[in-house]
Amino acid sequence: MSHKIVRKVLVPDDITMYQLHLIIQDAMGWEHAHLFEFSDAKWKSTIRAGIPDDFDDDFDVFSAPKQDVFKTSLKKVFLEKTNAKPFWYWYDFGDDWWHRITFLKVSQKDLKTFEGAPICIEAIGKCPPEDCGGVWGYEEFLETIKDKSHPDHDEMKEWYGMDPEDEYDETTANFDKISFMLKDMYKSKQWKAKKPGFF
User: Fold this and answer.
1) Angle, vertex CA 145, rays to CA 181 and CA 160, nearest 5
2) Minimal CB count within 10 Å: which of 30, 44, 50, 70?
3) What is the spatial distance between Cα 104 and Cα 76, in angstroms, rounded to a whole number?
4) Residue range 86-97, pLDDT digits in tens
5) Total tally of structural domains belonging to the chain
């Protein structure tokens, strides 16, 4: 039951990894509800960036020490240092959502629409709901919400916030909502944050 989920986003070249985290959250439809980390590889990474915490030392034996996302540059660390190789964004260490991030060549047409703020130029597929239980939980969610005869169908629709008559389509993405969220986030205090906090 898996489906393709893609977001193509134009971003300023001087952003931090924290700002990239904000962009991914709003472009995907996540809710900024869990911890996250960037790395050049899923396992045995040589570059890691996240929010420093008391448990860093427990994981440093398996991979590189974690850099502070508020001080780590996308361009200098994940573009120039790795020769623009794809890298990973790991969101929600319980559900384990792994996002593969690839640098793409920007077309002249897309550049004409770019005014400095992050903009989404393509969106395919709906993002899985927060706290649905990872890949396996999401498959169960899809099976339940699409089968009207399933005993948990109505309860699942209510949990997701759908009206009884609504149909769930995992292949669509709300492009207008993504664009609005990115614009709103770019103007927020959160975009300029230099350390973790509440906004």
Assistant:
1) 40
2) 44
3) 16
4) 999 999 999 999
5) 2
Distance from C-alpha of 49 to C-alpha of 64, rounded to nearest angstrom: 9
Alpha carbon 18 to its chain centroid, in Å, reads 11
Q: Are 28 and 185 in contact (CB under 8 A)?
A: no
CATH code for position 40: 3.10.290.30
In a domain, 111, yes or no: yes
Measured CA distances, 149 to 64, 145, 153, 165 (Å):
49, 10, 7, 14
The string over 104-119, giving b where at least 16 C-beta atoms fall within 10 Å of a residue's C-beta and e elsewhere, is: eeeeeeeeeeeeeebb
Q: Are residues 104 and 76 in the same domain?
A: yes
pLDDT greater than 80 at residue 149:
yes
In this prediction the pTM is 0.92
Asked whether the beta carbons of 118 and 182 are under 8 A apart, the reply is: yes
- Asked if residue 146 is part of any domain, the answer here is yes
* pLDDT for 54: 57
For residue 102, the one-letter residue type is T
Q: What are the two backbone dihedrals, phi and then psi, of residue 102, each rounded to the nearest 5 degrees? A: -125, 140
Residue 1 lies in a domain: no
Structural domain for 144, as ranges? 128-169
